[in-house]
Design brief:
The complex is a heterodimer of chains A (241) and B (281).
Chain A lengths: L1 E8 L9 E8 L3 E6 L6 H8 L7 E6 L2 E2 L4 H6 L1 E4 L11 H11 L4 H14 L15 H12 L6 E5 L7 H16 L3 E6 L2 H7 L2 E6 L2 E6 L1 H11 L2 H9 L2
Parallel strand pairs in A: 3-8, 3-9, 6-7, 7-8
Antiparallel strand pairs in A: 1-2, 1-4, 4-5, 9-10
Helix pairs in contact in A: 3-4, 4-5, 8-9
Chain B lengths: L1 H12 L1 H22 L7 H4 L3 H12 L2 H20 L1 H6 L5 H35 L5 H26 L5 H17 L1 H12 L8 H11 L2 H13 L1 E3 L7 E3 L9 H25 L2
Antiparallel strand pairs in B: 1-2
Classes of the chains: A alpha/beta (241), B mainly alpha (281).
Chain lengths: 241, 281
């Protein structure tokens, strides 16, 4: 379970908070959509929740572990797939899997075996021996997904993961997220693509200029689509666009 | 704790660290080989070599090499990953930013220490073979200390700058500027400042204190003061190559000041980087 409590992030005193007193929970066995325009604060929220940056105030609990005070345990329980995966370009996938596996106390042989399985699962078996600098953006995302699943964490953060993927990639990701939900995992999926969120999300948190505007549950999502034709119209009504 | 040990091990085994160590040891081995393959009979000029001469010989060989390799080691073990964003994919693992920083730093300075100890021993062995005379133990220890402090402080400075700049090119530019100012041009900078302070007259011994103070303000200059502490010899900036014998304590170069400033140079940059890693972002 991912609990975001009263989260605020201020990058500069002269600008508005990137995230402003945001609170919501992603339950186990749930896909929470995270919708907002560019600069709404989606990536900042996810970067705080994964321990990359610090919050100005507020907390993020991953299965009860504070991402700031108990970072090691919190990170052990979460996986992150960024919008623009950035890995050591000269590394090969299995080398990096072995390196990451060490942080979870995995032996090199176990990490290699698990890494191989995951790379096959994300259809990268043919590129397993190539350096990551030769990977396309879509392949890097698939690798990033495999790396996030290395220790089979309970919680997942997908940051604009569907962006830049071909239709086959989008279908693959959608299927995977549904599978994760079926296994009882908590999934936070940020996206610009509202139709995708409408398809897979159990609830959708709409944020605008750092503030949480509304959390839509499934009946509300369906009602909004029914009344407006699609989710986009309803979204702009909420954010005032 | 497990992840700290793991990261320490991995950094120490990284190819960049091994290459940097290899370069230092290779240069030392080459010098030792050239000395050892010299003439079998020792000429009179070689017999008259002093302990100070042996010390300064080694010092001039590594004074250039250690800072530049330490800068590269700092860049490749941490700075590059930090500024390129690659470190983010590691930070999301069960490890903290400060653990990553500290373990990579410790692995790097252990690598520098090992390379320096081996290199100084190799060159001393070469000198022993050529001059039939080795350095006293206190001079060997001083040389190892000088390069260890210099290496650790330059690595720490690169780690610190990696938290202050946003791109790899900015970090590399700063690293080169750091090397040029602190290592190559420090005595020139000190001379210019002393000329200003003493209104053009820098030939007297009264400027020596200023020169020594300046030396303490640079990780490379610091080594010159340790050399004065060990050899009791000082080269006046105004008369290049002219050595005069001094009592180091009269100029504030004591065991305490040398030890304390060395520790400050090693600790302060990495401590500041550590604080930034814990509090900033």
């Amino acid at each position: 379970m991912i609990e975001i409590r009263d989260l605020t992030k201020i990058y500069s005193r002269n600008s508005r908070p990137a995230v402003n007193a945001m609170s919501f929970t992603v339950n186990n066995g749930e896909i929470m959509g995270f919708a907002g325009l560019n600069g709404a604060g989606k990536t900042t929220t996810i970067r705080i929740a994964t321990g990359i940056i610090y919050p100005t105030s507020g907390t993020v609990l991953i299965d009860g572990n504070d991402i700031v005070r108990d970072k090691v345990n919190a990170s052990r329980l979460s996986g992150w797939v960024p919008e623009f995966p950035n890995f050591e370009p000269n590394a090969r996938p299995l080398t990096l899997m072995r390196y990451y596996g060490g942080f979870y106390g995995m032996k090199a042989a176990d990490a290699t075996r698990r890494g191989r399985e995951l790379l096959e699962a994300v259809s990268l078996e043919e590129s397993m021996n190539e350096k990551l600098r030769n990977y396309s953006q879509g392949m890097k995302k698939r690798f990033s997904l495999a790396a996030a699943m290395l220790n089979d964490p309970q919680n997942y953060f997908f940051d604009e993961t569907l962006n830049g993927l071909d239709p086959e990639g989008i279908r693959f990701m959608r299927k995977l997220m549904v599978e994760l939900r079926g296994k009882g995992k908590a999934v936070l999926l940020s996206s610009h693509i509202l139709n995708e969120l409408e398809t897979v999300a159990d609830r959708i948190a709409i944020i605008h200029k750092g503030k949480l505007m509304q959390i839509m549950d499934r009946p509300l999502i369906e009602k909004a689509v029914r009344e407006n034709g699609n989710l986009e119209e309803y979204f702009f009504k909420v954010v005032g666009g | 704790m497990n992840s700290i040990f793991y990261e320490l091990q991995r950094t120490f085994r990284s190819k960049f660290v091994l290459i940097m160590m290899g370069i230092i040891i290779l240069v030392a081995a080459l010098i030792a080989y050239l000395l050892a393959s010299g003439p079998a009979s020792v000429p009179v000029s070689q017999r008259s070599i002093t302990d100070e001469g042996l010390f300064n010989g080694v010092d001039s060989l590594f004074g250039f090499l250690i800072p530049i390799l330490a800068i590269f080691m700092g860049y490749f073990t941490y700075g590059k990953d930090r500024t390129s964003g690659v470190l983010e994919s590691v930070v999301t693992r069960p490890v903290t930013k400060s653990e990553l920083l500290v373990t990579r730093f410790i692995a790097s300075i252990i690598a520098i220490l090992i390379a320096v100890v081996i290199s100084v021993m190799l060159v001393d062995a070469g000198q022993m073979s050529y001059f039939r005379k080795g350095m006293p133990a206190n001079m060997i220890a001083a040389l190892i200390w000088i390069y260890f402090v210099e290496g650790a402080s330059f690595i720490g400075l690169i780690y610190l700058f990696a938290h202050l700049v946003k791109s790899q090119s900015s970090l590399l530019g700063l690293a080169i500027a750091l090397f040029i100012v602190f290592s190559l041009l420090w005595s020139t900078v000190s001379t210019i400042v002393l000329v200003e302070v003493f209104h053009g007259s820098i030939s007297s011994l009264s400027t020596l204190q200023g020169q020594i103070n300046f030396n303490f303000a640079s990780p490379s200059g610091y080594g010159k003061n340790v050399a004065i502490y060990v050899t009791h010899l000082v080269t006046l900036t105004s008369i290049a190559g002219t050595n005069i014998r001094v009592n180091p304590a009269s100029y504030g170069i004591t065991e305490l000041s040398v030890g304390a400033i060395g520790i400050i140079w090693m600790a302060v940059p990495i401590l500041l980087a550590f604080l930034l890693a814990r509090k900033r972002d």
